[in-house]
Design goal:
The protein contains 11 helices and 2 strands; from the N terminus they run αααααββαααααα. It is an all-alpha fold. The protein has a domain of 253 residues: Rhodopsin 7-helix transmembrane proteins (Rhopdopsin 7-helix transmembrane proteins). A two-stranded antiparallel sheet has the order 1-2.
Length: 388
């Protein structure tokens, strides 16, 4: 009786786990499918950096479509894969996860170029052929990390249950693959982020040094003061004595000269104030533009730092566990639930990526509004208000 109760409780827990795993796979497919659909619908999204977002969404979408659905019955219900299906699942899973990681590196490098080398980045050739070549290079490199070794080494099943590549028993191969999957991408992303922060810090200090709000006003005041000094010096000079000029004509000449000096003085003050206001408004607009660009770049750098942290949290435990477990012989390797948790963490990264990358961008948000036809409602409300 106790055996039947334990089997019933085990089956209920397996069904519950299968439900939540299937829910995660559906959420991964839905989030990344929205990005792919937005890219197809909105033509304004079709520029260089968004193509890399599309490449990331494709790799994460197939994680939810292939990797997780095949793993659920194999892990929870002891479904025997067989050699061919096991090799297919291993190659596909490692390819998709590694391609997702390399797409993150490519996106970070693209942001590094746009912030640190903005002039050369805009002048670069951004033809679709070059962009597609970079996208395909990500998939080729991701396949070369694990694909040939999976094909060469035979897959084995521990206790008739687990499908794993044969090189899992060799720690040095796992150390190489883990460094290529995790250490090298993390170091690259951290390096690009540090350069972005350093460039933004230098630009912020430079803009603060070059843009002083009182500089233009002081210069205009000095300019007006120089005009006054020149006029006062001209009017304070003693007039040459003319013996033949009468007193009445001399007074009229002095009045006319004072009147003309006052006119020139007022005109010079007007011109100086106009030039000062024009230069001040131009410097203020330039300062605002630089400030907006710095705010955008700082926001971008913060998002990249969050991405680096999430990527490290999702991939570091799995890489460490695989290296540690590879030191044991295949038959004596201990069972650990934490290893399964770390295995699912790297799949959870495919669920988080759509929220950390494209869904935070206003261009993608506008595309989502077009998909769900939410722009028609304000138009209808405006027409209704205009009719009344």
């Amino acid at each position: 009786m106790s055996d039947t109760n334990s089997t019933i409780s085990l089956s209920v827990s397996n069904v519950t786990l299968a439900f939540f795993m299937s829910l995660l796979a559906f959420a991964i497919m839905l989030g990344n499918a929205m990005i792919i659909l937005a890219f197809v619908v909105d033509k304004n999204l079709r520029h260089r950096s968004n193509y890399f977002f599309l490449n990331l969404a494709i790799s994460d979408f197939f994680v939810g479509l292939i990797s997780i659905p095949l793993y659920i019955p194999h892990m929870l219900f002891d479904w025997d894969f067989g050699k061919k299906l096991c090799a297919f699942w291993l190659i596909t899973d490692y390819l998709l996860c590694t391609a997702s990681v390399y797409n993150i590196v490519l996106i970070t490098y693209d942001r590094y170029q746009s912030v640190c080398n903005a002039v050369s980045y805009r002048a670069q050739n951004t033809r679709i052929l070059k962009i597609v070549t970079l996208m395909l290079a990500v998939w080729v490199l991701a396949f070369l990390v694990n694909g040939p070794m999976i094909l060469v080494s035979e897959s084995w099943k521990k206790k008739g249950k687990k499908c794993e590549p044969g090189f899992f028993s060799k720690w040095y191969i796992l150390a190489i693959t883990s460094s290529l999957e995790f250490l090298v991408p993390v170091i690259s992303v951290a390096y690009f982020n540090m350069n972005i922060y350093w460039s933004l810090w230098k630009r912020g200090n430079l803009s603060r040094c070059q843009s002083h709000p009182g500089f233009t006003s002081v210069s205009s005041r000095n300019c007006g003061y120089s005009f006054r000094c020149g006029l006062f010096s001209r009017t304070s000079l003693p007039a040459p004595k003319e013996a033949a000029v009468p007193l009445h004509s001399e007074k009229q000449g002095r009045k006319s000269s004072l009147w003309s000096s006052l006119r020139t003085h007022t005109n010079s003050n007007i011109i100086a104030s106009q030039t000062g206001s024009i230069s001040q408004s131009g410097s203020v607009s330039l300062h605002r533009r630089e400030r907006l660009e710095l705010l955008r770049a700082r926001k971008l750098a913060k998002s990249l730092a969050i991405l680096l942290g999430v990527f490290a949290i999702c991939w570091a435990p799995y890489s460490l566990f695989t290296i540690v477990l590879s030191t044991y012989p295949p038959e004596e390797r201990p069972e650990s639930e934490w290893y399964e948790i770390t295995f699912w963490l790297q799949w959870f990264n495919s669920f988080v990526n759509p929220f950390l990358y494209p869904l935070c961008h206003k261009s993608f948000q506008k595309a989502f509004l077009k998909i769900f036809c939410m722009k028609k409602q304000p138009m209808l409300s405006n027409n209704w208000s205009m009719s009344f």
